[in-house]
TrEMBL record:
Chief location bin: nucleus
Annotated protein name in UniProt: SprT-like N-terminal domain
Domain SprT-like intervals: 43-169
Annotated Pfam families: SprT-like, SPRTN_ZBD
Bias (Low complexity): 190-199
Presence of the UniProt keyword Transcription in the record: no
Keyword annotations: Nucleus
C-alpha cells in the first residue's frame, strides 16, 4: 500500500478518535430546537427561506416568492401557484406568526385554531331556526366587520333552509365608539368661529 495513503488513513483514524474523546463535532440543531429562541428568535423571512431552499430543496425554489400578509387571519399561510411556468407565491400571516415563538414559523405542523379564534372578534347570530342547530348554532364569527350577506357562498342555502336574519351580538371593545369619532365633524376653533361670525355680520351691513 502507498505510504502516503497509509499515513492519511492513520491521521484520519487519529482524528476520529480525538473527536470522539473531546466531542469536537456536534450534531446540527433541530429546526425547532429551543436554543434558536435565544440565538435567532425573529429570523428574517426571506433569508430563512433561502437557507431552507439550499438545505432541503437543492436550490430549486429560487423563483418562489415569500412574503408576509397583514390581512390574513384565518390561516397561518397559503401557497398560490399559477401552473407550469407560472409564478409561485407563499404568503404567511404576520398577525398569527410574527410574534409567535420561532418554532411556529419553521415547524412542519402547528395548530393555529386558538390564534385564529382570537382575531375573530366580530360576531353575528341568526334569529332563525339555525340558531338551535349544530355545529355553529347560528353564529358567524369574523376578523373584519363584514356582516353575512349575499356575497357569502352559503347565503342562498341559508335563505332557503332557515330564512333568519343575522344580528350583530359582539364586537371589539370601543369599536363602535371609534367609528363614531372618525365620522364626527371637527369643532371649529373659537378664534376662527369668531372671525367667521364677524365677517358674516360685516357682509350683512350696508
Amino acid at each position: 500500500m502507498d505510504e502516503d495513503l497509509v499515513l492519511a488513513l492513520r491521521l484520519h483514524e487519529e482524528w476520529n478518535l480525538e473527536v470522539a474523546e473531546h466531542g469536537l463535532v456536534q450534531e446540527p440543531l433541530s429546526l425547532v430546537d429551543a436554543s434558536w429562541e435565544l440565538v435567532d428568535p425573529t429570523p428574517n423571512l426571506q433569508a430563512l427561506f433561502m437557507q431552507f431552499n439550499d438545505q432541503y430543496f437543492w436550490g430549486q425554489l429560487e423563483a418562489v416568492e415569500v412574503k408576509w400578509s397583514l390581512r390574513m387571519t384565518m390561516c397561518a399561510g397559503v401557497c398560490s401557484y399559477e401552473g407550469k411556468g407560472g409564478m409561485c407565491s407563499i404568503r404567511l400571516s404576520e398577525p398569527l406568526l410574527k410574534l409567535r415563538p420561532r418554532k411556529d414559523l419553521v415547524e412542519v405542523y402547528h395548530n393555529f385554531h386558538d390564534e385564529v379564534e382570537e382575531y375573530r372578534r366580530h360576531w353575528w347570530r341568526c334569529d332563525g331556526p339555525c340558531q338551535f342547530k349544530k355545529p355553529y348554532y347560528g353564529y358567524v364569527k369574523r376578523s373584519t366587520n363584514r356582516a353575512p350577506s349575499a356575497h357569502d357562498y352559503w347565503w342562498a342555502t341559508h335563505q332557503k333552509t332557515c330564512g333568519g336574519t343575522y344580528v350583530k351580538v359582539k364586537e371589539p371593545e370601543n369599536y363602535s365608539k371609534k367609528g363614531k369619532e372618525k365620522t364626527k365633524p371637527r369643532k371649529q376653533p373659537a378664534a376662527a368661529a369668531a372671525a367667521t361670525a364677524a365677517a358674516a355680520k360685516k357682509k350683512g351691513n350696508p
